[in-house]
């Protein structure tokens, strides 16, 4: 009797330790006892169903240090991301909803992959190889935004789990048909999310097409490194960018590339997001805050540091590296307290910020910007890494 009892308590104790440090549900870990205490883990469950009856799955990823990410097949959305603060306390550091239906009903691209073209294309029109294409003007009936009415953030992606030596993940694929949302060509897009044991969320993007088409895929996560305790104005941001692309009142780039020096757009040194956001600046007026594209300082191709964010109260740090030429920094200006998100939290003005690695907005209409055109036989391939640490 005594033996059975002590065995039971030992099991409970081990399960508690594993539950605290490692991944997934307790039962899973009891099953895998004997292996490493915090073995990386992938758990898959049904998250819900779309109106047309498609099953949506939720992948729960956990790395060797207990960092966790929940990713669903609808919109390739990162539903939650749990990271430790300087005392080891885990918090969810991205905005979103608790259930699928809320995402479907009304989401300002929370955590999604946006495509076929992230950000705006002026008047929803572009000409490619002599043909003019017309896209939805889903942004104030004026411009095309984030891929249109049913962009990549509103479709169900195919999925398969991925295991690599130092990471667990999910590979999501979507076949965007020729003519979908007005874009030419059948586009096969693949996005692989990996949670590495270096505490990174790594996103690998790939695409191929059978007709020339613009492609600009990005991740539209809303971060709040306090764990959603307050607005994001106290976060300290550094952007590795000496120039940005100024916009007109419709947030379309004018075509210029302007130095940030001596303007509120200068984040070359660590600066609080809120320090200059309310100042007299036409660009900030147009955006209702920051909603602009910064051109990254680069010496060549390959991975470069794009941004670093430090949140002083929790000590959390997020560093972004990318192969992309630019980054959109959006300070959550359209959040206004009308959305109630996870665990009943009201998302007030500037409750989250986005840092979207990308090509410049409206590139299909700006011949001087780096090209976003993918042609048959070519492979679109970009990588962005979000690395989490504390100080
Ligand atoms: C991007 C755009 C913003 C806004 C948000 C989502 O960052 O640049 O203007 O559309 O997405 O609301």
Describe the 3D structure.
The protein has 391 residues and is mainly beta. Helices cover 10% and strands 38% of the residues. Alpha-D-galactopyranose (GLA) binds at residues 108-109, 119, 145, 251, 291, 328, 330, 334, 354. Alpha-D-galactopyranose is lined by residues 108-109, 119, 145, 251, 291, 328, 330, 334, 354.
Provide a brief overview of the structure.
By secondary structure, the protein is mainly beta. The chain contains four helices and 29 strands. The chain has a nine-stranded antiparallel sheet with strand order 11-12-13-14-29-23-22-17-20, with no helix packed on it.
Highlighted features:
29 strands; mainly beta; 391 residues; 5-stranded antiparallel sheet; globular
Shape assignment: globular
Approximately how much beta-strand content do the residues carry? 35-45%
Give start-end ranges of low-pLDDT stretches. 1-21, 25-37
Spatial ordering of strands, largest sheet:
11-12-13-14-29-23-22-17-20
């Amino acid at each position: 009797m005594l033996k059975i009892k002590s065995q039971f308590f030992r099991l409970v104790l081990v399960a508690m330790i594993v539950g605290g440090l490692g991944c997934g549900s307790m039962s899973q870990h009891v099953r895998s006892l004997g292996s490493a205490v915090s073995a990386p883990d992938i758990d898959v469950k049904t998250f819900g169903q779309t109106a047309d009856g498609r099953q949506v799955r939720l992948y729960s990823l956990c790395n060797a240090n207990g960092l966790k990410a929940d990713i669903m097949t609808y919109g390739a959305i990162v539903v939650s991301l749990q990271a430790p603060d300087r005392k080891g306390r885990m918090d969810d550091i991205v905005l979103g909803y608790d259930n699928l239906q809320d995402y479907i009903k009304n989401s300002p691209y929370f955590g999604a992959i946006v495509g076929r073209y992230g950000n705006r294309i002026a008047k929803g029109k572009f000409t490619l190889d002599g043909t003019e294409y017309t896209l939805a003007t889903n942004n104030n009936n004026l411009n095309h935004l984030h891929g249109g009415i049913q962009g990549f953030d509103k479709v169900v992606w195919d999925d398969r789990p991925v295991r690599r030596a130092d990471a667990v993940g999910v590979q999501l694929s979507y076949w965007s048909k020729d003519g979908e949302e007005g874009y030419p060509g059948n586009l096969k897009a693949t996005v692989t999310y990996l949670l590495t044991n270096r505490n990174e969320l790594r996103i690998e993007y790939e695409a191929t097409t059978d007709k020339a088409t613009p492609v600009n895929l990005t991740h539209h996560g809303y971060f709040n490194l306090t764990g959603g305790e307050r607005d994001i104005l106290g976060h300290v941001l550094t952007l590795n960018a000496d120039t940005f692309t100024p916009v007109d009142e419709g947030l379309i780039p004018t075509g210029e590339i302007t130095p940030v020096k001596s303007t509120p757009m200068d984040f070359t040194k660590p600066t609080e997001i809120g320090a200059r956001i309310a100042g007299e600046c036409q660009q900030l007026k147009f955006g209702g805050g920051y909603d602009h594209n910064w051109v990254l300082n680069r010496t060549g191709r390959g991975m470069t540091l794009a941004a670093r964010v430090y949140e002083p109260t929790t000590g959390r740090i997020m560093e972004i590296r990318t192969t992309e030429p630019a980054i959109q920094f959006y300070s959550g200006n359209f959040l206004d307290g009308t959305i109630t998100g996870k665990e009943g939290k009201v998302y007030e003005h500037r409750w989250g910020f986005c840092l979207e690695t990308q090509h410049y907005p409206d590139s299909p209409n700006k011949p001087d910007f780096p090209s976003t055109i993918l042609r048959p036989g070519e492979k679109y391939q970009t990588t962005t890494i979000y690395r989490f640490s504390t100080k």
